[in-house]
Amino acid sequence: MKILADENMPYVQQLFGDLGTIETVNGRELTAEQVSDVDVLLVRSVTKVNQALLANNNQLKFVGSATIGTDHVDLDYLASRGIPFSNAPGCNATAVGEFAFIAMLELAQRFNSPLKGKVVGIVGAGNTGTAVARCLEAYGIEVLLNDPLLEQSGDPRSFVDLDTLIEKCDVISLHVPITKHGEHRTWYLFDEARLNSLGENTWLVNCCRGEVIDNRALIKFKQQRDDVKVVLDVWEGEPHPMPELVPYIEFCTPHIAGYSLEGKARGTYMLYQKLAEVLNIEADKQMGSLLPFLWSEQVNLTEISDERALLQLARFVYDLRDDDELFRKQFLNKQGFDHMRKNHTHRREFSALKVGNTGQTDVNWLSNLGFSGVEL
């Protein structure tokens, strides 16, 4: 069996090596000729999986995408040919949630405006939005949710409409899929008019898809409204962000909010489990065995005295400033955006760090935040 996999998908050899011959490719430049004789295709969001890509292949047994979204995959076409498909919903939700939370802590530190006491609005309350809410609520932050589709589906949580969220929230974090049509389309959800409706000193964080914000309108807006602070992990026109936008953004990263080692491993592992199901074989490998130890396995605390101390603890696991600095240096280089994504291998999740409590202060909430080994 021939398995074709995106070269940036980790742990493919360890998980799929026993099932066939593995070839890795540049997913953004994948051609129909390369796919013509493969049995299993494993992709990420940079590959458009459609009739044009698969027309020459008559033996494909499975397509897997190690992503939450499926907007890059023609699901109807795969179904018409009877080709099993699986994505990895929730695989990087924890990573995205922690990234957004850390970004908010970094903004709080940079602008001397504590996150504690702010109201945070989450637009899109699926897996990643829920993960952001979990971090914020563990820290005692009030959260408002906007997700009309989940609200209509009977989700029991409380929701508000988008205009209410914008009016009431100090921070807005975006976690919606990209949809171009329909009543609740998200393409340019934050257009010029909606950007102009943002309250004074709002923080806006986008970790979903670049086109959820009209980037040209954002440039115009930021030229007039420096009080609004913006964090962008995703960009309109990826992998070529608008160079004139970058100076107006407080923290810039190359679509890596979900790129923790845990998230990447989880995505690949979910596809391994699904393929085993399709092939009717036992999935006998374990995800935990794939991950290395964090450079510092445990930190002992007496207390978390303030928000700065919490940010310092988070930086033990992931320092957002490093990726922001690298982005500004390299995003204009040829294939610089993709190069940064491909080589982004250092990011971990809070669970990789054990926190011991050597004092009398209650730090149990750190366990709810995601840190492991918290002792009372």
Low-confidence stretches: none
H/E element order:
EHEHEHEHEHEHEHHEHEHEEHEHHHEH
Oligomer kind? single chain
Helix/strand-derived class?
alpha/beta
State the helix count: 15
Instruction: Count the beta strands.
Output: 13
Rg (CA only) = 21 Å
Helix content: 25-40%
Overall mean pLDDT: 93
Biggest β-sheet, characterized?
A: 6 strands, parallel
Estimate the strand proportion. 5-15%
Strand order of the largest sheet: 7-6-8-9-10-11
The best one-word shape is: globular
Distance between the termini: 51 Å
Q: What does this entry look like structurally?
A:
With 376 residues, the protein is an alpha/beta fold. 35% of the residues lie in helices and 14% in strands. The chain has 15 helices and 13 strands. α4 (75-81) links the parallel β4 (62-65) and β5. It is globular, with a radius of gyration of 21 Å.
Q: Layout of helices and strands, plus pairs?
A:
Blueprint: E1 2-6, H1 12-16, E2 21-25, H2 32-35, E3 40-43, H3 51-54, E4 62-65, H4 75-81, E5 85-86, H5 93-110, E6 119-123, H6 127-138, E7 142-146, H7 148-152, H8 162-168, E8 171-174, H9 192-196, E9 203-206, H10 215-224, E10 229-232, E11 251-252, H11 261-279, E12 298-301, H12 307-317, H13 320-330, H14 336-342, E13 354-357, H15 365-369
Parallel strand pairs: 1-2, 1-3, 3-4, 4-5, 6-7, 6-8, 8-9, 9-10, 10-11, 12-13
Helix pairs in contact: 5-6, 5-12
